[in-house]
Please model this.
Amino acid sequence: MIDIAIRGSHPGGNIILKSIEGDTVTLAQDLRDTNGTWFYWNFRIEHAAEKTLTFKFDEELIGHHGPAVSRDGIRWDWAKNGVMIDRKSFRYTFGPDDNSFYFAFCMPYTAADLQRFLGKHADDPRLSLKILTKTEAGYSAPLLLMGNRDKPEKHMVITARHHACESTASYMIEGIIDYFLSNPKLLDKVLFHIVPFADYDGVEHGDQGKSRIPHDHNRDYIDAPLYKTVESIIRHCGDFPVFAGFDLHAPYKWGGRNDFPFIAKSASPGKEEIERFGAYLKTISASRGGLVYDGTQDIEAGVEWNLNEPSTCSSFMRRSGAKLAFTFEMPYFGIAPARITQQGLRNFGKDFAAAIESYYYEVNT
Ligand SMILES: [Zn+2]
Model:
């Protein structure tokens, strides 16, 4: 028996240790209250220095670039070439300083990451941190207000993590905020209401969050919501006219459109507004390069899973009067030359913010 410890007790952690035999560790993702299966996992290993170990799952849970790896649980990268054996397994040689080491399905993001980010803007009066609600687990779920709080011309709502594991959306939010704090002219006119963790408890606990039983947070925009965060979003958005609502997600694990950023469209007249916004995002992201939205992967209303389900956040935004509202999907991995990185996601968030700005000026002047 090798003297190692595998833990999922850190924020965002999720793992089931099935066995350690020789140098082979067999693992599974922890599905908890998921209906069916999903793919998120995130664990810490201790006492691993100078060992070479093989990690195996029974299902295909390793993305295009191998596992995400981190020494501190903060800065994440993909494992080097050669680490990934196949979609179910990888083999890692730990260095002398790698006594404690993290592996994950994707680039994780939890409340501690948001706190670190907000610390950089703590003295900025244009951005303020409020409490959306106390959650079922007793945490204070954050609500960020950014822009004109006295007399805004318009209100925009940005939400993420209705499905807890969809961490790529969180890095986009950092980029969106950074863009507007450095290019602030829209902040004179608009108040942004940002809910970084619509399923705060799920994010901290490392839940899948997708397809919870009896329904997940993005099926909770109903008359009697199950979750305090969703109930609070509904109540909060009742206090003002919603001009635009952006609900940020990550899609299925990989393959087809899931490897590219895309929009789940609504029917007309919302569809035309989405396409107007999308044209800006296309031009702006193409000019930066790297992670690019090109519109070709968008999913039309009524196609596949995009069935205008009234209990989703974006449907709620439309019911609240939003001219522009949609679900945005940011992949977990991407394909070279647009491999997902933490900084690439933040940069794409800036492009998304610039597209919001361009759209706003087109329709309001
Ligand atoms: Zn989602």
About this structure: Residues 5-104 form a domain with the Immunoglobulin-like fold (CATH 2.60.40.3120). Residues 162-163, 166, 218, 249 surround zinc ion (CB under 6 Å). The first strand starts at residue 5 and ends at 7.
